[in-house]
Amino acid sequence: MGFIKNFLMNAGMMVTIAYVANIIYKYALIRFSARIKYVSSIFLLIFAGWASCFFGFRLSENVIFDLRFLPLIVAAAVYSRPIVIMLVGVGIGLTRLTFGIDMAAFVGVLNLSILGAVCAVLNIWMRNSTVKLHIKAIITVLVVNIINTFDIAVLGVVPIRIYLFEIMPFTLPMSILMSGVFVFILRDFHTERQRMLQLEHANELLYQQTEELQQTQFVLEERAKQLLLVSQYKSEFLANMSHELRTPLNSIINLAQMMADKEDQRTEEETVLYSQMIYQSGLDLLELINDVLDLSKVEAGKLEITYEEVRLWELVEVLRMHFEITAQKKGITFATVQDSHVPETIFSDAQRIQQILRNLLTNAFKFTQKGSVTLRIHKHWNSEDQSEWIVFSVHDTGIGIAPSQHQVIFEAFEQSDSSITRRYGGTGLGLSISRDLATMLGGYLGMESREHEGSIFSLYLPLLQPPSVE
Q: Taking a C-beta distance cutoff of 8 angstroms, is the pair 395, 389 a contact?
């Protein structure tokens, strides 16, 4: 009866330690690193073995019967490294020395060391075997209990006859039963722990999904705001377009009507003047229509890029001849500067480069009332990707642009100030088209500007090598 009571006490104590360990893990060790939790679990199993000795049944002053091998069964099921299981066995064995150093204590150390090696072998078998889990548990419990009984009988702490016929018939069935019960309880603990981990994982996943939903909602709200702004800008754009279309059309119609009404009375000077005004109105209308068509082509992906050798001096000369008259009319200095180390030719699309630079120079002259406009061509070395670029920079001393509007002015249908468009004319699409064309050429547009301090718009194009002809 003493064995039964004592083994029940041992099993209850083990369950209590497991429960307390679960609470400690949940509320204290959860914030620590995996290494600390791993080492703590080893010491906890060794402590459980020592506690089993402490509450063991004393057959005599030196001989103690208990379930100190139960933590080894747990170690065999939990750890993946056999050396750790053997360390737990040796550690539990050494705790037996705290109850006195004698032959029984040394036999206890040897017995637990042997059981540690056995559990390490069982661990390897369990990890490599395809047998069902409950079969593995039954075999492990039986093997550990049988070897423990064999060790006690052979090592001779208790006379073998007394042990086999008076003690073992009680201790072996009870130790197998208590081991099975303890393993079953641990399985419930493990199942509960797995359920808690799954719940934590589900909560974490739900939190992440909530964050993603909030982020998506934020993005959708921003998109809605952008669409609202685009709608507003399109309305302003259409209003400006209406004005820009009507002005040259009305001029052409009115002037043509005047020429028709005064066919017999008009002088040669009047005819020339009206013709020039009709011509200029037609050019303005053509430029506006070209801008709209180019934008629609870019957005539809229908605009084609044709690469060829571009002679820079020819490009600069055409631009200089075109804008010199504009500069003279406005009383503005216009200069072109080309650095000496710039190559004579580049490989790109001359028509699109000229279109971009025309847009930039047109804006520079449009918003500059006095001072100068300069077109400078130079090379730029990008140290980040080890690439070389050709840069066309348009400097002006015009009205400048506030920093808060630097990004807005490059968007289609968006102007930094619609009143500026009405005051200076134009659709406001030039920079948007130029940006898209620069991207299609493999480059980009840069800008430096401050209000009332002028602007610098730069076209960056990669220095490409023409394909070799075999």
A: no
